[in-house]
Design goal:
It contains 17 helices and no strands. By secondary structure, it is mainly α.
């Protein structure tokens, strides 16, 4: 890289002068400070964008925002820098700030499908589900194969209790990308809301086949099995969820309820005691009232 070559040349120059002119340490540090300033000044907007992206991937979102801001200062029409800065702001739960950046990115590039999808996500986090749906719809118009836009629109429809609309969107996302476990889980959740427990179990099972290490998938399937009074099946799924995530009180609560439904009060109490220890308040009451 050019800047590394420049550093090497300056280093060579300093050593040479140290030998010839007996340059002091103070002079060396001053010269290096000038060099560092020069190198920093020489960074391009694209380099700041790349640096910001690397910091964001390392979860240094404040550092990423700083770099994206520098990219924008160098190129005020850099739509990607605004979009990426919005993503980091969203990760810091500054949803209004993120929306402002996504909106600017869209002004600069009205065909920026990801900026619409991202703005929809921030609106969804602010519970502006209708606004989110409009942005996801625009993203889909620009990119009809944008699976995550369909999935996210489905989630906003689900929040508005439009379960059939949500299922339609999740199904479209699955058609585009049949290997994303979350799409199946989300569709299963909407089927569960419609009391289609068998359909929900089929989707949860598919999600588990794709990703067998997500506790939430087993928990969701366990809930649907419980509704079908398959308590043993539910207990099996809750147990797997606990193996994967032993610190979620609700998994113990739900397993305890299924054990109670099978007449295993001792087993239920053991689970509720564990849930109480994890901070579940109702479990504390159940243990006091029903357990020895």
């Amino acid at each position: 890289m050019q800047w590394l070559y420049i550093i090497w040349m300056w280093y060579y120059y300093i050593i040479l002068n140290l030998i010839i002119n007996k340059l002091t340490v103070k002079n060396i540090l001053f010269t290096l400070a000038i060099l560092i300033s020069f190198v920093s000044f020489g960074q391009t907007a694209e380099e700041y964008l790349d640096s910001g992206y690397d910091k964001a991937n390392a979860n240094d979102h404040y550092g990423a925002i700083s770099d994206y801001t520098k990219a924008i200062e160098l190129d005020p029409n850099y739509a990607y820098a605004y979009n990426n800065r919005g993503v980091s702001k969203e990760n810091l739960k500054d949803y209004n700030g993120a929306i402002a950046d996504y909106t600017k990115a869209i002004e600069l590039d009205p065909n920026f499908a990801h900026a619409y999808k991202n703005r929809g996500s921030s609106k969804k986090n602010l519970k502006d589900y209708s606004g989110a749906i409009r942005d996801y719809t625009k993203a889909i118009e620009l990119d009809p194969n944008f699976a995550h836009a369909y999935n996210n629109r489905g989630s906003s429809k689900k929040n508005l209790k439009d379960y059939y609309g949500a299922i339609a969107d999740y199904t479209k996302a699955i058609e585009i990308d049949p290997n994303d476990a979350v799409f199946y889980f989300n569709r299963g959740s909407s089927k569960e809301n419609l009391k289609d427990y068998s359909g929900a179990i089929a989707d949860y099972t598919k999600a588990i086949e794709i990703d067998p290490n997500d506790a939430v998938f087993y928990f969701g399937r366990g809930l649907s099995k419980k509704e079908l009074k398959d308590y043993n099946g539910a207990i099996s799924d809750y147990t797997k969820a606990i193996e994967l995530d032993p610190n979620d009180a609700y998994y113990y609560v739900s397993r305890g309820i299924s054990k109670e439904n099978l007449g295993d009060l001792n087993g239920a109490c053991a689970d509720w005691k564990k849930a109480a220890a994890l901070g579940h308040k109702n479990s504390t009451k159940w243990v006091a009232n029903d357990c020895n």
